[in-house]
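Reagents: none. Just compute today. AB hydrolase-1 domain-containing protein.
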Amino acid sequence: MPLRVLIAGTSPLLAGRLAARCLSATDSGTEVVLLSAAGSRPGAVAPDRRELAGFVARCRAGGPTPGDPGGGRLTVVCAEPDAVAAEVKALDADRVWCVVPGWDRSPARGARADAALAGALLDALPGLGARGYVHVGPDTAPDEGRAHRSYRALERLAVEACLDAGVSWRVLRTAPVVDAGAPALGECPPGAHRLLWALDSVRAEVEDRVPGWFERHPLRVAGTAGLGLTLLTAERAADELWRAGAPGDLPDGFATVPRPAPVPLADVLARAGAVHGIDVRPVPDRGDFGAADRLLDLRLADVRRQAVRLRSPAPEADLPAPDTPRSDLVGPDAARSGAAGAEPPAALPAPAGAPPPPPPLSAADQWEVFGAVGARRAPAGAVRDGAVRDGAGLRRRVVEAAGRPLVLFEGGAGEGPPLMVLNALGQGPGFLTRLCAHLAPHHRVVTWQVRGTEREDPAWGTRRQLDDMEAVCGAVGAERFHVLGWCTGAKIATAFQQYRPDAVASLVFLNATFRQDGRWDGMDTKYESDLAAVCRALDRRPEKAARMLGLLAPGAAGGRGSPGARDAGVLGVLSRELADEVRRPFRDAEVLVRYARQLVDLWRLDSAAQAPRVTVPALFVCSEFDGISSPARAREAARCFPHARYAELAVAGHYAPHDRPALVAELVTEFVRAPHEVADLVRYAEITWHADTEGTAR
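Predicted 3D structure written out:
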């Protein structure tokens, strides 16, 4: 009978590399089942079977076989972590590899997915008929706290299950890796890849506003002195893991992939910056940071946590050479004592004569890898990070509502209630195009052209907007929706939840304005104060509209947030793609009058009185540099909602759903999935969480 090897992993990158190594190292009688349990999310869509099979083929020694990437020996299965148990029931395997390296951007989300995969494999172990089990986890340090404890607990669970089943076992640990294929697989491992992502994402946000800005301005970084990154290639990690875990005649035990000598962080930043066309300059402190420097600094926080001290690196245990006695592996008796609750035995120091740690990745190899990763980046104005595959765009259709045509945009995929995306008054769909594109692979999405400002529209107050939302519900044919409101859409979404409480599963407010007559006075941004004065004047004297058109030009959309906020600098400049959208309510006098009267009507709506009766979860996402909708007022409004979360994005403006669509879409997606856990599931240095489950601001 052929030997069957099951390689299941939450990292398609490392599991795929191991599958390629197995196919290259074994004879034609070995069959490999690669089970990818990577979870898709906005900004990181997991690869499908075809993509993963192609990656394995490219990694195989000797190159792929045209039309047959596995030489007839590879089967690829893709499933979400929670669905692995059902997939494994139909399988059998002689050896099982569980690859859970802990590389998810969210430690809580990653630990949950890794535990689900490991638990499903261990539960199925007796039925699989396996003779050997290999657990691959992260090489964590005790000071990493909860993450370290959770992954060591998984190791103990694996050892105990194997001992109970009479299956030989090995527990292997590896540091994060770097690989040119990671972006195409939707992966961003800690360390070098997070650094490359930070530079690329800042470059994209800046150049979306001011092309060529980096030709005249450097980016400054602080906190790099004395730190280095261990640049372990995924190919080398897979080779070392295979060598430590594949041979059937090795005893049970633990081993750690040796880390290469670290490369100074400042050198890595300089090379990576050059690849992205950015002059990165280390500085001693953050005193003179501009907005772009601050954003990069926040996004490098995770990289600094993964860095090591150059002068006093922690001792590393090395994997032995093939002919070296395995004195660093512990036996089953020691494992039993570790499984009872003590820390599992770590790898002992390498015996005399063992090979030294591998040398650091050479400068030439760094240039090659960083350049390959950079070459896969999307243009600044495109939907980024592989978040949207072909066919994810929204379809346009026209339905009849209140005797007039209503233009809908809908599409996407996903289980559960659809996302109803409510645009701001007077605005076209362009503001939310990128966000909807990132949401569509994970949710059914429906949005529409908000009515009331076109010349052919009659007067269209708040009640008419609620009627349009009712019509959208009927057109889509769903009974419940998650309702997302941007800017003025937040107040209308709240009113709709009161009007149709049975139809609303949750509320999401993006850069919300809760401006209300006689409420939260003194919290206006300058733009809100100017807009209120103009709108009230036009409501009384519409004939003045032509003279007031220039008072609210796009420049007034501002780069400053609440009083005392630091200057947003280049990140306060309006994206070029939004210039025409911003002008939409101000393009002629008649449209401006209609827009002004819509706002005056909305300001009469008492959302503060409605909010305490909102029983569904609510998520507020606001921005530090929002110069249009007051973040201070939004925080006060959040206090009124019984089940509110409030997240503020640092160094972001009013158009954050357009400027940072993947991040906002991830917030929305995780909130819809687990509203009470979203603050733990989405942890980025640029997000500050302000409200707890009772809606009380801290």
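The radius of gyration is 28 Å.
Action item: order primers for follow-up constructs.
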